[in-house]
User: Fold this.
Amino acid sequence: MTIPTNYFLALSGVLFILGVLGVLIRRNSIVILMSIELMLNSANLAFIAFARAFEAHTGQVLVFFVIAVGAAEVAIGLSMIVSIYRSRGNIDIDQISQLKG
Assistant:
């Protein structure tokens, strides 16, 4: 008895929508980074579901690349947050957008 691929894709879609809502609604930069990671992991779930459905290993290889990109994104994002906190003393997203000038 196996779980149908549609269930995995539906779960992946729900997780991706939750990630998008987290990016759009939240104002905390750490939560925004976690929401981006949630979106990347939902894409990983879809890749694995398709790889299992078509019995191909290419989806699993793509997952490794997405995980590497996610790790780099977290490292750069956290370093930016630490740098902004050291210079401004605050990591509020509204105040970060004022750094444009």
